[in-house]
Amino acid sequence: MCTTYLGLRMIASLPEGVDLIGHPRLVRLNPNIPWRTRGNGAVSFEVGTGAGKPSMIGEFQGKGIRSYPDSTGATVNGPDLLELLSSLVEDISHSDREGTDPGLVISNYELPDEVYWTGVRGVHEQEGILELLEDSRCHHRSWGNGRGLIGAACSIAWPGSLVTYEAVSYRKENAWGTPRSFDEDQFRLLDSEHGTFSTSDPGTGRVMAVPNTPCPILAGIRAESPDVAERALLSLDTEEPSGHLVWATNHATDDHISPVRSVREISPFMSVSITGTVASAPRTVKGGHVIVAIDSEGTVDIAAYEPTKGLRETVLQLREGDLVTAVGGVRETPLTINLEKIRIDRTVDRFIKSENPVCDACGKHMKSKGRGAGYRCQVCGATASENDADRVTVRAPDTGWYEASPSARRHLTMPLERLDRC
Ligand SMILES: [Zn+2]
To answer: Under CATH, to which class is 3-249 assigned?
Structure first.
């Protein structure tokens, strides 16, 4: 089941006197973990007694969802809330289904930032999280293998140093599993007209904001500000939704990227940013993927996979000696960085040989003695060095950033258009 829909239903079911504080949070965790759910998302929200002027941040079945900017500090009855929300998890999520392992955590305290950073960049041990929840006197419950507790704890711990927003609309229950009805062209124009991002892929025209899975989500519109996201979502002509909600998220923040200084610091399940010198000629392998090795106290392959589309052309233009910064998730065997983006920092001169040297005595073109070995005249045996051949300079690619096609982008990956602003 879609985690954010469960979150919406929980928020819409909060009892009288338990107020929502701030925006609910949709946090994506390490995208390289093999045993994750598809989007590896976890949601959390703060409740208390509201203070300050409330605003509407969504609605469900005709009833507005109100959020307060602040709370009085009064605490909420954790065990009661755990019972209420647990019954929703059991009613709504497919907690009896293989691979569905929800976890629910209620904490009266903020959890350490480090819990989030490990969850988005590394790997948590389940025992460590259980210890943390006990030490922090959290109320918790889990289903299936209990791994859901990890996501829940990480979402609560998210410090939100970089934040974007997603306004998500949800389908009526009787429409789940049927094709979604919406005006594709409106979605395609949204980013240029409303200041939203990642709504559609300009290259392919694909609308990325509308999933094609049987989940309850109708559309998700992303923006830097909650108001821009919500206004844009509500401007769209779609089938009648059951409701919508504006989430604060870590989408498009690059929070999952660990900057490393050498290949020795790279290990599986990480996503890294590493600067290195191109150490091989690029090669295209089966499936249309393009791979090249880079060196930084050791070598590692970097790969532009077929779905990254235009990024493959960039990698194909690299030459031994170019300096690049590669950003992407690490694959274990063989050790490879799956490029999300790449920056060309410096390029070497590029030549191609246009003509072999001509023998002074005979006036005939000489023959190559082998790669890098110079030339010899077939007639008189005179020799010439490699540099005596005529060479023409080839244009190097421009320095700067290049990114994967938006359709291949991970939730967490910061698009280049945001990179300039952060
Ligand atoms: Zn000769």
So the answer is: alpha beta
